[in-house]
Amino acid sequence: MGEQAAKELLTIGKFTACYGLKGWLKVHSYTDPEENFLDYGGWLVQRRGKLEPIEIDAGKRHGKGLVVHIKGVDDRTAAEAYEKLEVAVPADSLPELEEGDFYWRQLEGLEVWCRVEGEAVERVLLGTVDYLIETGANDVLVVKASEHSIDERERLIPYLPGDVVTHVDIEAARIEVDWFIDD
């Protein structure tokens, strides 16, 4: 457990209720699309302060959500012990993304810099990415003011790579945007 606890874990869903009599559980998946929940391995639940590995041996779409079966959990009574538990996986089990694609968690905490043109071109710090919002049309960066930011404003900046977002450098912990600064 010590080695597993040292790894970064990502919560990918939660068991919400039992389904049927043969040990199946309903899942509220935090992944997009929801079915990605089934593609991971190394599932863990936390119970009584300890991480417990589980093996999901079957899963399928059911109605608007997912149902899964945990290996060795073969009746409703056994499944009830998993209700309301969150499911996590090691962060290093996430699939590699293509160049220029990022997981939301990689963008959170990055500084957001804006290029300002005047007599000389300079860059000003708008703040740091607090979290992202999914709007349907495009994702939105919620940028909170930070210690050295230009002002104390919170900004909502569309996450549009190549347009508003001109450069993302995960290693330097910065995002560059083409955005206007209100007076």
TrEMBL record:
<keyword id="KW-0690">Ribosome biogenesis</keyword>
<keyword id="KW-0143">Chaperone</keyword>
<feature type="domain" description="Ribosome maturation factor RimM PRC barrel">
    <location>
        <begin position="104"/>
        <end position="179"/>
    </location>
</feature>
<dbReference type="InterPro" id="IPR009000">
    <property type="entry name" value="Transl_B-barrel_sf"/>
</dbReference>
<dbReference type="InterPro" id="IPR002676">
    <property type="entry name" value="RimM_N"/>
</dbReference>
<dbReference type="GO" id="GO:0043022">
    <property type="term" value="F:ribosome binding"/>
</dbReference>
<protein>
    <recommendedName>
        <fullName>Ribosome maturation factor RimM</fullName>
    </recommendedName>
</protein>
<keyword id="KW-0963">Cytoplasm</keyword>
<dbReference type="GO" id="GO:0006364">
    <property type="term" value="P:rRNA processing"/>
</dbReference>
<dbReference type="InterPro" id="IPR056792">
    <property type="entry name" value="PRC_RimM"/>
</dbReference>
<dbReference type="InterPro" id="IPR036976">
    <property type="entry name" value="RimM_N_sf"/>
</dbReference>
<dbReference type="Pfam" id="PF24986">
    <property type="entry name" value="PRC_RimM"/>
</dbReference>
<dbReference type="InterPro" id="IPR011961">
    <property type="entry name" value="RimM"/>
</dbReference>
<dbReference type="GO" id="GO:0005737">
    <property type="term" value="C:cytoplasm"/>
</dbReference>
<dbReference type="Pfam" id="PF01782">
    <property type="entry name" value="RimM"/>
</dbReference>
<comment type="function">
    <text>An accessory protein needed during the final step in the assembly of 30S ribosomal subunit, possibly for assembly of the head region. Essential for efficient processing of 16S rRNA. May be needed both before and after RbfA during the maturation of 16S rRNA. It has affinity for free ribosomal 30S subunits but not for 70S ribosomes.</text>
</comment>
<comment type="subunit">
    <text>Binds ribosomal protein uS19.</text>
</comment>
<feature type="domain" description="RimM N-terminal">
    <location>
        <begin position="11"/>
        <end position="92"/>
    </location>
</feature>
<dbReference type="GO" id="GO:0042274">
    <property type="term" value="P:ribosomal small subunit biogenesis"/>
</dbReference>
<keyword id="KW-0698">rRNA processing</keyword>
<comment type="similarity">
    <text>Belongs to the RimM family.</text>
</comment>
<dbReference type="GO" id="GO:0005840">
    <property type="term" value="C:ribosome"/>
</dbReference>
<dbReference type="InterPro" id="IPR011033">
    <property type="entry name" value="PRC_barrel-like_sf"/>
</dbReference>
